[in-house]
Write a structure and sequence with these properties.
Layout (H helix, E strand, L loop, with lengths): L6 H17 L2 H20 L20
Helix pairs in contact: 1-2
Length: 65
C-alpha cells in the first residue's frame, strides 16, 4: 500500500516539525517524526485499523493530541 500526502497535509507536517524545533528541541521533533513514521507503517499494514475521514478513501490517524 502506498501512502500519499496531500500538499496541505505535508506542509502541516513540516510546520509541526518547525514548531517543535523552535519551541521545544530537535529531540522532540525527531520523536514526532519517529511517531509519524510508526503510524504510517501501521497504516500500510492495516489501513482498516484507522477510521475513514470525511473524504473518500482517506483514513485518519492522531499522532499526538
Amino acid at each position: 500500500m502506498e501512502v500519499i500526502w496531500s500538499d496541505d497535509a505535508f506542509e502541516d507536517y513540516l510546520e509541526n516539525i518547525r514548531f517543535l524545533i523552535r519551541r521545544w528541541s530537535e529531540k522532540s521533533a525527531i520523536n514526532f517524526i519517529d511517531e509519524v513514521d510508526t503510524i504510517i507503517d501501521l497504516l500500510k499494514l492495516n489501513p482498516e485499523a484507522f477510521p475513514l475521514s470525511n473524504y473518500k478513501s482517506i483514513r485518519r490517524a492522531v499522532v499526538r493530541k
